[in-house]
């Protein structure tokens, strides 16, 4: 919640799965 209030667009939970991280990055990066 704190991160979202600070302007975060998304979050991932630990343990981080690589495929979830890649999907989150692709959703927020142009191109």
Question: Any chance you could write out the topology, listing elements then pairs?
Answer:
Layout: H1 2-5, H2 18-28
InterPro entries: CheY-like_superfamily, Sig_transdc_resp-reg_receiver
Organism: Luteibacter yeojuensis
Protein name: Chemotaxis protein CheY
Provide structural commentary.
With 31 residues, the protein is an all-alpha fold. The protein has one domain. It is built from 2 helices and no strands. It has helices at residues 2-5, 18-28. The radius of gyration is 10 Å and the shape is flat. The protein starts with a helix and ends with a helix. The mean pLDDT is 82.
- Tally the helices: 2
What is the SS-derived class? Answer: mainly alpha
Could you tell me how far the N terminus lies from the C terminus, measured between alpha carbons in angstroms? 28 Å
* Overall radius of gyration: 10 Å
Write down how many β-strands occur, each being a DSSP E stretch of 2 or more residues: 0
Q: Could you say how many structural domains there are in total?
A: 1
- Contiguous low-pLDDT stretches (5 residues minimum) are none
Mean pLDDT level: 82
Q: What is the percent of helical residues? A: 40-55%
> What is the element string, with H for helices and E for strands?
HH
Shape: flat
The proportion of strand residues reads: under 5%
Largest sheet: none
């Amino acid at each position: 919640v704190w991160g979202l209030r600070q302007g975060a667009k998304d979050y991932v939970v630990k343990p981080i799965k690589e495929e979830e991280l890649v999907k989150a990055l692709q959703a927020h990066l142009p191109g």
